Amino acid sequence: MSSQEAIYPLNRTDSSPIQAMIGDTGTAPLIDLPLSENVSKRETARRKIHQNNLKFTDWIQDMHGELDTSGLIPFTRWITKTPTYIPKRFSTQMYIYMLPLPKSNAGCLQPAQESPVSIPTHDGGLEHTAAHFDSVANWLNHARSGDIVLYPPQFFLLSLLELALGDGYTSYDASQAGKQRECLLRFVESGTPPWTEKVISPAQIAKLKDGRTVMGLDKPGAELNKSGRRGEMDRVILVDFQKGVPRRLEVAQRKAVLKEQRVNMKL
Question: Is 48 exposed, middle or buried (0-12, 13-18, 19+ CB in 10 A)?
């Protein structure tokens, strides 16, 4: 993988994140579709696209739809660090996308309930068996209890969202949601570099007494070591890989974890 392949300029016309969202959940919030395009038509197109019998871009064109790629907010890029005996590596750009706000309190969103904009559905068991909206805090709690599996990048980014959004909510109106979004946007643009530009190639830097691995997030990957790109300097991920499945995940302060590790080594 070259440095150009590892980190390339954001392509604001790239439809792949939107296609992935439709394929995984059946929702189409990033697409301005005519009212005549109903759910049954969308599900039919979804199956054909998944089976490679219909091009995603052709479907959008046939529906006279428009992709809202400008609504994609970059939120870190992740580059896998793999052993030399594994031939493939991946460079994955993460995004945040904000659903349209309800126009009145009657249209308030609530965790674990369907959005009035679009209802997520599973894909018939091809890649997953359930899909629904819920709060960030609830998804993290499900992962901590072992009900679902979140891999380190997913758990880390959701933890950041929980930090930026504050306490969980049971309901909110458009005004409250708007304030939350302002806080989130300020957070995404904060830091050096900001979260929109951070490139993370996670790597093991220590092992804790409880068996968990400490994953450092500060390096951007070998190809980018001299590029000026950086990851996250202050936080680490603690994880216990049980037969390849990440469990007991936690986001912690790097200095505190490494200081405790040094103390334990002295003891």
Answer: middle
